Amino acid sequence: MLEQIRARLRELLTQRADAQTSLDGVIAAAGAENRTDLTADEAAAVTDARSKIQAIDAEVETLTAREAELVADADRRAAADAVLAGLPTPPAAVPAGGTGGVADVRVGSEELTYRRGGPHSYFRDLAKSRLEAGGSYDDEAVARLRRHGQEMDVELRANMNRTDGTGGEFVPPLWLMEQYVPLARAGRVTADLCRKLPLPPGTDSINLPKVSTGTATAEQSDGGSVQKTDMTTTSVSGAVTTIAGQQVFAIQLLDQSPINFDEVVFADLLADLAVKVDTYVLNKASIGILNVSGIISVTYTDASPTVPELYPKVADAKQQIDTNRYLPAQAIVMHPRRWAWHLAALDSSNRPLVVPNGSGYNAFAGFTDTRSQGVVGELQGLPVYVDPNVPTNLGAGTNEDRVILARFDDLFLYEGSVRSRVLFETDADTLSVRLQVWEYLAFIGGRLPKAIAVVSGTGLVTPTF
To answer: Are 350 and 257 in the same domain?
Structure first.
């Protein structure tokens, strides 16, 4: 998460510098002409630039605070781990006066109930809270889970809204969710570029109002009628869907394995959950970015495709967003194979066209990282993200991928918290335990279709190197 926040900050600060340059240019032009007033166009440009700067500053302030929190969290965690490494594992204990109620909630430097390397296993307690032992549930496990739920409300600074189930589910421990972030973001590059919003509780769909035709103005003659055009509205909606997975394992594993096997189970389930969320955002029928009706489509048809020939198609997609959305695209997303094809491209003198940071002579793109997923470089002034979930089986030959440009702030992804529960009854005949994880989400990519441009065609078949 920290890396993504810093990448977003760099992007925002670049946008702010551009807006400030625009603002300064308008003011300077008026000053050069010894004018004290701005023309209508200049005033509009100044207002637009200032609005952009204010919006950017607000987001920068939020992200900067979040970055500081994450850095501080990492520093405290490292310091605590260093101390913990030199100490024997302490026995489980309830703080003096603790009853499992609000008084037990962690404050200050008190350790969380479930933590990496700690004495308690979240999954084991989750199972024991559902398992009768000697005619009763494990009261200590139940108490720890309740305490953990209160801790999560404090740690995540939000009500986790555990009302959608039947009371048998809990929010996973914070340290597992911290681990979920890098695992998830490695598998949901495009989803994380979208504007992420909390999913409202108690709803099966989200409806957003939309202006379909706007008001109008016109030149008025002296004494003539003023233009009157009524606005018309419609709405766009996104259905709330559930993405879920489960793992069945023998009760012997629960009883006899090392106490903390949380990481193994969650790493696998959450990694796949991340992929499914990203695939939903990209390719869900009628909803996903590639299938939204009315988006900008740019076709690159070529029996012998080359990177220089694709370049103007990307520029066309970029300018069409500028022309139709009236705000710029924010990023380019492509499959890793398409970016590798860019990296392999040479000019007539066998010099690479894409060079580190775009510093080479006449380079038209630059790369900043060699990672296989996430932001890797820059093309036409936009950050390039590679996402392995971009499909590569499209087109008539089922061998095409796509290049996506978008103003991702216009694409809304509503997500609830990831939840988990343990079931014994389902597989009782085999003495097995069923672990389930799930989350609810809704995606609205068609709110402003012209904020999306997709380059497609035979020029994007499987590249050769």
So the answer is: yes
> Does a structural domain hold residue 97?
no
**Tokens at residue 225, please?**
């009628």
Could you give the 3-state DSSP secondary structure of residue 174?
A: helix
Can you tell me the distance from the alpha carbon of 124 to that of 257, in angstroms, rounded to the nearest whole number? Answer: 10
The span from the CA of 184 to the CA of 278, in Å, is 9
Residue 100 vs residues 1, 103, 139, 142, 161: alpha-carbon distances, Å: 32, 7, 10, 9, 20
pLDDT in tens, 100-136: 333 344 444 467 787 777 788 777 777 777 654 444 4
Tokens found for residue 2: 């920290």
Residue 124: which of 268, 256, 259 has the closest Cα? 259
Contact between 176 and 266 under an 8 Å Cβ cutoff? The reply is yes
The predicted-structure confidence for 138-158, as pLDDT tens digits, reads as follows 778 878 887 877 776 554 443
Same domain, 313 and 462: yes
Count of C-beta atoms within a 10 Å radius of residue 299: 13
Same domain, 169 and 253: yes
Residue type, 81: D
Q: CB–CB of 131/123 below 8 Å?
A: no
* H or E segment to which residue 61 belongs: helix 40-85
Query: What phi and psi values does residue 17 have, to the nearest 5 degrees?
Result: -60, -40
Task: Tally helices (H) and strands (E) across the chain.
Answer: 10, 17
Residue 181 neighbours by CB under 8 Å, 6+ apart: 1
In terms of domains, do 42 and 126 share one? no
Domain span including residue 50: 1-88
Contact between 389 and 282 under an 8 Å Cβ cutoff? The reply is yes
Nearest Cα residue to 422 out of 46, 24, 142: 142
**What pTM value is reported for the model?**
0.66
Q: CA 392, CA 375: separation in Å to the nearest integer? A: 19
Q: Write out residues in the chain with pLDDT < 50, as ranges.
A: 87-109, 132-136, 155-169
User: Which of 18, 53, 88 is the endpoint of a domain?
Assistant: 88
75 and 122 belong to one structural domain:
no
Domain count, the chain: 2
Same domain, yes or no, for 294 and 380?
Answer: yes
Q: Are residues 320 and 413 in the same domain?
A: yes
In a domain, 138, yes or no: yes
- Cβ–Cβ < 8 Å for 417, 201: no
- Specify the CATH number for the domain of residue 27: 1.20.58
Domain end marker among 22, 57, 88: 88
Could you tell me if 323 and 371 lie in one domain? yes
